[in-house]
């Protein structure tokens, strides 16, 4: 419990809700969300991806490590276990170790180099459609006991902001080089 009698999770949720109420810029909202998720779950790397189902593209909207994952990167989505679980079914994905990271991310060696050996992917959905993901990566086993229901609530709080960004992605042309996911 914090000094005000609230749990850290409730305080974190309140900060995110306040950022939505105050109509902060997207960048300010993502920073508040990052701080709040970190307080509850921890992370070494946090990214936000918008997903457009029509074009099957993901675009990185936010990264706390632009040296590793720069903002603006666009990826074409291919069929994979991750795509089916997170983007199609809208289910959280928890990876616990290096092998889990390697099975999901093509840049696994870079992630390992900064100590990222586990992942919590939180799908963000609106009306049954995934519009993006919140992605936390940390040391091995970091999310094995994560409160999945709480993670889903954070995801839903991001839905309106991500929905707008995913719609904007539809109008962007394909870059000359696009990474495959």
UniProtKB/TrEMBL annotation:
InterPro entries: GAF (IPR003018), GAF-like_dom_sf (IPR029016). Pfam families: GAF_2. It comes from Chitinasiproducens palmae. Residues 28-162 form the GAF domain. This is GAF domain-containing protein. The lineage of its organism: Bacteria, Pseudomonadati, Pseudomonadota, Betaproteobacteria, Burkholderiales.
């Amino acid at each position: 419990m914090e000094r005000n009698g609230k749990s850290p999770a409730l305080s974190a949720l309140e900060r995110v809700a306040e950022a939505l109420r105050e109509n902060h810029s997207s960048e300010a909202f993502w920073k508040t969300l990052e701080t709040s998720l970190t307080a509850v779950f921890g992370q070494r790397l946090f990214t936000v991806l918008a997903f457009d189902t029509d074009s099957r593209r993901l675009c990185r909207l936010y990264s706390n490590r632009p040296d590793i994952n720069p903002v603006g990167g666009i990826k074409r989505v291919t069929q994979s276990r991750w795509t089916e679980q997170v983007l199609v079914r809208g289910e959280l994905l928890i990876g616990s170790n290096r092998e889990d990271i390697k099975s999901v991310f093509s840049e696994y060696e870079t992630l390992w180099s900064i100590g990222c050996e586990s992942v919590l992917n939180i799908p963000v959905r609106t009306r049954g459609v995934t519009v993006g993901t919140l992605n936390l990566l940390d040391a091995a086993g970091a999310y094995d006991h994560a409160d999945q229901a709480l993670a889903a609530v954070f995801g839903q709080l991001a839905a309106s902001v991500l929905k707008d960004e995913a719609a904007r992605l539809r109008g962007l042309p394909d870059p000359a080089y696009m990474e495959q996911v």
